[in-house]
Write a structure and sequence with these properties.
Low-confidence stretches: none
Distance between the termini: 39 Å
Strand order of the largest sheet: 1-3-2
Order of helices and strands: HEHHEEHHHHH
Length: 178
């Protein structure tokens, strides 16, 4: 996820200060890792340095300064360019799941690999059940439902891989040992 571009997108709706951007991010991307305030302000500093946002207003009433930021034309262009860019499928497999299975087999322990695959399958299935409960709750927003669906589909793909791989452990073990 590109925090820079999400913040630019949030600012496309009008000037906001850091607290509002953090709140809006966490609300609009409910299953994403919440942003830290420091990350918001550091990102705003870089965006301002790069000419993508500018200070819109500074409110000094009743407490610490609250600076609102607004998109510049360059910021709108950068956001439009990012939205028009197709994300390429990942060229490399970078998964802790795969690495743990291969390493377990490298140390000559197919039973350990099978136990790991089974335990990981149980953890994935539990997470899918948790997400399903969350998305079917009466108070679930459409944004929460869409985010849960995204996570469930990724977990389901991992489950299919786990199931397939457990059946291939013996063959993979022979191949890795060569």
């Amino acid at each position: 996820m590109s925090t820079v571009h999400v913040l630019l997108g949030l600012l496309s709706r009008g000037a906001r200060h850091g607290y509002e951007l953090k709140r809006d991010h966490d609300q609009r991307l409910p299953r994403a890792k919440p942003l830290a305030f420091g990350q918001v302000y550091a990102t705003l500093g870089r965006l301002q340095r790069d000419g993508l946002v500018e200070e819109a207003e500074r409110d000094r009433a009743g407490g610490p300064d609250r600076t609102s930021y607004a998109l510049t034309d360059a910021g709108r262009d950068a956001l439009a360019s990012w939205l028009d860019t197709i994300e390429p499928p990942a060229p490399h497999v970078t998964s802790a799941l795969l690495a743990k299975v291969v390493v377990a087999l490298l140390i000559d322990d197919p039973d350990r690999a099978r136990r790991y695959l089974g335990a990981q399958r149980a953890a994935h299935a539990a997470r899918i059940r948790e997400l399903t409960r969350a998305k079917t709750a009466a108070e679930a927003t459409l944004g929460e439902i869409v985010a849960a669906d995204y996570a469930i589909n990724h977990l389901d793909a991992d489950l299919r891989w786990l199931d397939t791989t457990v059946g291939r452990v013996a063959d993979l073990h022979r191949e890795v040992r060569q």
